[in-house]
Known about the structure:
By secondary structure, this protein is α/β, with parallel strands linked by helices. It has a single domain (about 1-225), classed as 3-Layer(aba) Sandwich (Rossmann fold). It contains 9 helices and 7 strands. A 7-stranded parallel beta sheet has the order 3-2-4-1-5-6-7, sandwiched between helices. Helix 7 (about 180-190) links the parallel strand 6 and strand 7 (about 195-200). Helix 1 (about 1-30) packs parallel to helix 4 and helix 2 (about 45-55) packs across helix 8 (about 210-215).
Amino acid sequence: MHRTKVKVAVDALDANQTIANANRHDFDHAGVAVVNLMSAPGAGKTTLLERVLASLDGVRAGVLEGDVQGSMDADRIAALHVPVVQLNTESGFGGECHLDANMVRSALEDLPLSELDLLVIENVGNLVCPAEFRVGEDARIMVSSVTEGEDKPLKYPLMFRACELVVVNKIDLLPHLDFNLGRLLANVDAVNPGARVMLTSARTGEGVDELREWLASIPDRARATA
Ligand code: MG
């Protein structure tokens, strides 16, 4: 029985990859680069995005907001006059704890892809499932806030391994926490050697310029490897 279960899981991931490839084809055709933004709930993805998008000069960005329920995050992004679509996994997708390629595909017709240089997909807050499902993206970012503790890379290695960039957020809180930044960085390096790491505070704006530059360079990097 155990083998049957494993086979079903492998088939599901194969099916996801097929749809992710179709998304990839459509993104390339529209000339839009795509980044998958992942983290645990409450790490600060949306607040970082607000900070970055407020002055992402010269890059036409759009956002796909993934949440189980509600449109709070999409409303915040829309206030910046950035094209945004809210995708709720509760409606039609069984309340899934992640976005998969099929869900992303279902939302593409509501986005002006050909008018965008960069599409940011804010995944559902979760440190496990989003890492397993590619959606056709060019790059993956995971945000780990310092309030989550130093041990998370060792407990959720796939998430930290699946991304090119680890953003350590809420660093303005470091003076108030028993948090060892050096230990976190060593743990990140242990599971994803050489991963790019940035230290940010969406609250104070520290490190946000560096993140903005990294995001703004994704379209050029995607074109260079196409
Ligand atoms: Mg959010």
